[in-house]
Queue: 2 jobs
Job 1
Amino acid sequence: MVYTQAPAPYIPLLKPRKGRKKGSYVSDLEPVKAKDLDEQITDFQWKTYTIRQGTKGPFIRKVVVLEVYV
């Protein structure tokens, strides 16, 4: 699960009751599965790169670079 925007994690405030204190961070943003990011990628974001020359011809790949937060 990743975030497409920078999340602002925080520890939630305690309610006045007995029990263990909260220690895990939460965020207001919803994370997205990395697999599902391909639905948000438009066609013009893909770039074609020649990685290297091989014996059978050039090694070409289509690449998208996205900034995500874990």
Job 2
Amino acid sequence: MIYSEYINCETKGYTDILDITNDIKRVVARSGITNGIATLGVTSSTSAITTLEFEPGLVEDFRKSLEVIAPVKGVYAHDEKWHDGNGFSHIRSSLIGTSKTIPIVSKSLMTGTWQQIILVDFDNRPRSRKVFVQVFGE
């Protein structure tokens, strides 16, 4: 069986991090699937989906680390061509990735106690993001 659904998220941009774990759990519950996988994907080239312990210190560490890797005020050929100032957000999205697959066992996502599913919006302005969730299984 396959079940699909979108989750809509409003973001602030500039590495806005949202905990979407409970949203994904609700989709899995609605799917009626007991064992399988949930595949999550954000339809954007300037945002990402990953897992993280969603606590203030680690969230700030994550933001700081990304600033070292792909700084907001860096020089990007993308910005020189398009003049939109979001070259950094494309690089960050590419590095983190726009999708994640998580096993489901006995109707539960197999995430760790301190592991939350997060949506990260790297763009340089607020956005409406859609996370596509597809659940496969029996």
